[in-house]
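Hi, does anyone understand the following?
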Amino acid sequence: MAQTDPCAYAYYDLGHALRLAGRPAEAIDALQIRLQNPNQRDVVAAELAAAQQAAGATGGEEAGTAGARARATAGARARRRARTRTAATEARPHRR
């Protein structure tokens, strides 16, 4: 049985929260990263579609440039947090 990366759930939660906070351009990046994991792909795709629709409704061409910059920044931040979490988890002594 394949195991789902715990960070995949965090990316979905992040994308959903960003969309609800009115930041759909940033949500799109997190949800696209989440789609790389096949678990519950239909739910993630629906959330991504909602974020894309919200992004289209909130801005035009100018917002597209800002949105691309925001997505790049959000993606870099999310990847950095994931690496930090992984490194911190590996550094902790194993408890029994």
